[in-house]
């Protein structure tokens, strides 16, 4: 499968992505634990069906020491016992923040309260930006059918 568009060869896309890529790197330095960031990025990408991002975040998380069991259970996190309460709150926030059209009212107060129980205001801000960033990245990749499978862990960091 070939991508419909090569973002790195496009002068216009390059103008935009030169601002987007550093934002993604800055997110890695957020006060949210790296493991949680990867779980959230993976879950958002699974929901959106972004094969490129699922490939990337699975490989980056594994390279950072995440277990295969936890990575394999992200899609079924509600029934899995391998996630902390804080991770579960972040995954729930990610799901409602991604499925805004399905949720009707966006993120409900109960989900926000659960997240706020585990994360301070700076961490919540970082999670909201991460969820939003991942939704944008997923759409960039899905629209242009960016292929998955060839990503090398740490390739964009």
UniProtKB/TrEMBL annotation:
Residues 25-95 form the Carboxymuconolactone decarboxylase-like domain. Pfam families: CMD. InterPro entries: AhpD-like, AhpD_core, CMD-like. Gene3D superfamilies: AhpD-like (1.20.1290.10). SUPFAM superfamilies: AhpD-like. This is Carboxymuconolactone decarboxylase family protein.
């Amino acid at each position: 499968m070939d991508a419909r568009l090569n973002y790195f060869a496009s002068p216009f896309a390059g103008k935009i992505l030169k601002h987007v890529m550093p934002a993604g790197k800055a997110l890695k330095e957020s006060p949210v634990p790296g493991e949680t960031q990867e779980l959230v990025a993976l879950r958002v990408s699974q929901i959106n069906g972004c094969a490129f991002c699922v490939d990337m975040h699975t490989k980056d998380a594994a390279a950072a020491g995440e277990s295969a069991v936890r990575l394999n259970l992200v899609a079924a996190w509600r029934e899995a016992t391998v996630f902390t309460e804080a991770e579960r709150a972040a995954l729930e926030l990610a799901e409602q923040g991604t499925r805004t059209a399905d949720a009707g009212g966006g993120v409900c107060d109960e989900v926000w309260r659960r997240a706020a129980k585990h994360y301070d205001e700076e961490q919540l801000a970082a999670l909201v930006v991460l969820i939003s960033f991942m939704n944008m990245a997923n759409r960039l990749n899905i629209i242009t059918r960016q292929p998955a499978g060839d990503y090398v862990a740490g390739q964009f960091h």
